[in-house]
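G., the chain you wanted modeled:
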Amino acid sequence: MSGYASGAVFSSAPYMPAFNGYFFATLIPITCAVFYYGGHHAYLLGTLMLVFTYASWMMARNIHRMVTDQYETDLREELSRAALKISESKISALKTMAGAVAHNFNNSLAAAVGWLGLMRQHAGNPEKARKAMLKLEQALDRSISQAQAMLDYSNANFRTPTKFSLTGVVRDVLSSIQEPEVSLLDEIYECPEV
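Predicted structure as tokens:
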């Protein structure tokens, strides 16, 4: 017989130990009293009392398990729905950001194409072609700066290695472990810069 059906596995829910305590501490002595004082039907009444009490205890435990399992299932489903909703909102935000980036790039590139067309039209007039070329350079610089800003934003979470002085680190450590009253370190040696 499995532990689930035999009653060998006790629940850890808050109210089940109280029920177990009630069952074992109250109903068993009452049943024993029925056996002892019950007269000529004592064995039958005591046995029926034990059987029905055990059956009611098993039903209560199984109902508790069923309710707990349903609660856990509902909780898992709710958590998965919440995670899906968060994921959908993140995707929506990314779509909005991608649309804004594409719009900015489209504006810069459309301006560059327009100034390139003006340069072609004014090929015979160097002054007008030079002005169009300067505007084309400005439009391309805007595109480059937008691309650089996106790269900087995407790399913001990566750590960049920086140089620091080992002497400064040692001094900071020494100052943090020295106490003004009792100094454990008598001398501080100068470390070469690394």
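Helices lie at 3-6, 15-37, 42-121, 126-154, 166-177.

Shout if anything looks off.
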